[in-house]
Amino acid sequence: MADPNHIVTVNIVTPDGVVYDHHGNLVIVNAIDGDIGIMASHEPIIAPIKISEVRVKRTDDPHHEDAIAVNGGFLEFSNDLVSIVANSAERARDIDLRRAQYQKQKAEETIKTAEEKHNVDDLARAQVSLRKAMNRINVSSHK
After folding, report:
1. Cα–Cα–Cα angle for 61, 91, 34, nearest 5°?
2. Quick one: 36 and 87 in the same domain?
3. Which of 85, 101, 108 is nearest to 140 (CA)?
4. Is 135 exposed, middle or buried (0-12, 13-18, 19+ CB in 10 A)?
5. Nearest CA-CA partner of 14 in 76, 87, 91
6. pLDDT for position 143
7. CATH number for position 12
8. Above 50 in pLDDT, residue 91?
């Protein structure tokens, strides 16, 4: 059983390097099968994660929660270490909201064009781009 008095280390890594490395009391991740909440002493787990927000309740301030936009990947937890490997990830404070809104608009335009032309490949790529942009926009509100 998880012990809220213990901490977990949370690392989020992308091909560009470490995006996040802190301690927390609780980590919430949206896995393919649903949300997972991880506290210290949780059973070891490996899970694929969706394009979603990762939330970390920090140990240094009980009222502070970090939000990180993660664009898929996988999570591994063992020995009180949460490791997330993702193609890309951004902390809320680092998200350029104007750029994310522009990417959302471009994805919506591409979706409309792809639907009109019945181009399933472009449609699928644009839908992923839209999910990524929406995730960044949502996470950016947690600055």
Report:
1. 85
2. yes
3. 101
4. buried
5. 87
6. 64
7. 2.60.15.10
8. yes
- DSSP assigned state of 138: H
31/76 Cα distance (integer angstroms): 11
H-type helices in 6-96, by residue range?
none
Which of 5, 6, 13 is closest to 80 using CA atoms? 6
**Helix (H/G/I), strand (E/B), else coil: 132:** helix
Report how far residue 49's alpha carbon sits from residue 96's, in angstroms, rounded to the nearest whole number: 23
| pTM given for the model | 0.89
Report pLDDT digits (tens) over 120-135: 999 999 999 999 999 9
How is 99-128 classified by DSSP, letter by letter?
A: HHHHHHHHHHHHHHHHHHHT-HHHHHHHHH
pLDDT at 89: 97
> Domain of 49?
8-92
Alpha-carbon distance of 136 to 48, in angstroms, equals 19
**Distance of alpha carbon 105 from alpha carbon 70, whole angstroms:** 20
